[in-house]
Amino acid sequence: QVQLVESGGGLVQAGGSLRLSCAFSGRTFSTYNMGWFRQVPGKVREFVAAISRNDGSTYYKDSVKGRFTISRDNVKNSVYLQMNSLKPEDTAVYYCAAALTGQAYDYWGQGTQVTVSS
């Protein structure tokens, strides 16, 4: 069974940076597409960024393009989300997810809180 554990969340002022990490275990990490999602209480969980297992292609929500960078390390079995120029509207619980096929995410982490103060 795949396990995902996020870390790196916290409180930061607007304009600041945070780096989220997600540790993957239980299966072969390099065979999974990986993604980051976020959720605000009372709202639907939304896609933030994804990185493919094959060629490392990346995909982003429009509002984070140019500010967030997703990356993966297939040796450390981890995926990262570097978040720069943070805005108060980025405040949410951020979740790491793994998809064995396409973008159908099968496994989710427990989430890490990111709070951006104005």
Structure write-up:
There is one protein chain. The chain has strands at 3-7, 10-13, 18-25, 33-39, 46-51, 58-60, 68-73, 78-83, 92-99, 107-108, 112-117. By secondary structure, the protein is an all-beta fold. Strands 2, 4, 5, 6, 9, 10 and 11 form a seven-stranded mixed beta sheet that branches. A four-stranded antiparallel beta sheet has the order 1-3-8-7, with no helix packed on it. Strand 7 and strand 8 form a beta hairpin. The model has no long low-confidence stretch (mean pLDDT 96).
Helical element count? Answer: 0
Assembly state (oligomeric): single chain
- Biggest sheet architecture: 7 strands, mixed
Structural class of the helices, strands and pairings?
A: mainly beta
Helix and strand pattern: EEEEEEEEEEE
- Low-confidence spans: pLDDT under 50, at least 5 residues? none
Overall average residue pLDDT: 96
Radius of gyration: 13 Å
Give the CA-CA distance, first to last residue: 40 Å
Question: Percent of residues in beta strands?
Answer: over 45%
Find the count of extended strands (DSSP E, 2+ residues). 11
User: Portion of residues in helices?
Assistant: under 10%
